[in-house]
Design goal:
heterodimer; A: 280 residues; mainly alpha; 74% helix; globular; B: 59 residues; 2 helices
Chain lengths: 280, 59
């Protein structure tokens, strides 16, 4: 379990590096090497580190610990085939953690990032819940049951495509440089994580690697089914390349537009779920 | 702290391999232990500490 956890962190960071590389190539830039995010994590871990004078010491450090802890838990939930509801819960906790990151530092950039995190949560979380439309078919939200259903009936990607779109959009909001990445937009420097540098940022990079691995793995498992290990990794690579194309070809939306668009999509998804409930 | 957290993680791994503790207990230990290990490892090998500063809070 420990070796797989370490692998997931590094592979997740490699996927984020690939994401940056593909975006750069689409935009006709050379881009960083694909292992850049791994180097980032190592570089930050060696840097001189302190807590800003304006920060709340306990919260400043605790949010980093919680961020890594909740995605470690999410990793085990997906591996064990646990309930999607737990994954929803961890996703919501992550929004709270982002808010905590922003508020703990005493920096206005961090605070704005934290506030935007809460704003975007209001539209992202209902979007995530619309994924629950799959329960009309599987009669369960346990990942194990979802996998068993797909083994008999085929991938849910073809059965409930709009639920797959909903989850795709949820993951898109967590992708760097995406149209909904308002918590990290450049006018806020680095958004909620502006003042978390050195070892604290290295911890956040570990969390990002694990989060990327968990969310992509969850998408593949929930909508395609159980795959052999190497096919799972390949599917995750293909998935992140599709995200890179979306991120490279779309501008980052203003916060109001981001929330409005996500809310409109959520309304469409809820209509779709209601339609599924009526006919399923 | 880095050695303690590493020791706890490895001990939980070995206990799980031997079947002494159930898988969920091993996973629960890791959920609490991994974040502490990651941060304490960084704080152990990082460059020297500096005086805290005040972040830019606007003009």
């Amino acid at each position: 379990m420990i070796p797989y956890l370490i692998f997931a962190i590094f592979f997740g960071l490699l996927l984020l590096g690939l994401h940056r590389k593909v975006i750069a190539r689409i935009q006709q830039r050379p881009g960083p090497p694909v292992w850049q995010e791994i180097l980032h994590m190592l570089k930050f871990s060696f840097k001189s580190t302190w807590i800003p004078r304006t920060a709340s010491d306990t919260l400043f450090v605790a949010v980093v610990l919680i961020a890594i802890g909740i995605w470690t838990a999410a990793f085990f939930v997906v591996l064990a085939g646990g309930s999607l509801l737990i994954l929803f819960g961890i996703y919501m906790l992550h929004k709270v953690v982002e808010h905590g990151f922003g508020l703990s530092s005493g920096s206005p950039y961090g605070k704005f990032g934290g506030v935007r995190s809460v704003i975007s949560a209001a539209s992202e979380i209902p979007l995530f819940v619309s994924v629950a439309g799959i329960a009309f078919f599987t009669k369960s939200l346990d990942i194990t049951d979802i996998i068993d259903y797909q083994a008999v009936h085929g991938p849910l990607l073809w059965i409930v495509p709009l639920s797959a779109v909903a989850m795709y959009l949820v993951i898109l909001t967590k992708m760097p440089f995406g149209p909904f990445s308002i918590v990290e937009s450049k006018e806020l420097v680095s958004g909620y994580k502006t003042e978390h540098f050195g070892v604290w940022r290295a911890g956040l990079e570990v969390c990002n690697g694990l989060k990327t691995y968990v969310l992509l793995m969850a998408f593949v498992v929930i909508f395609i089914g159980a795959l052999p290990f190497w096919w799972l990794l390949l599917a995750m690579v293909v998935l992140i390349i599709t995200y890179s194309f979306v991120c490279a070809l779309t501008p980052m939306l203003a916060p109001f537009d981001s929330v409005t668009l996500q809310t409109l999509i959520t309304v469409v998804m809820l209509g779709y779920v209601a339609w599924l409930g009526w006919f399923a | 702290m880095v050695w303690i957290s590493a020791g706890v993680g490895i001990a939980a791994w070995l206990l799980s391999l031997e079947g002494i503790i159930p898988l969920w207990a091993y996973e629960a230990v890791l959920v609490a232990d991994v974040p502490i290990f990651v941060l304490s490892l960084g704080l152990w090998w990082m460059a020297r500490e500096n005086e805290p500063d005040i972040p830019f809070i606007g003009y």
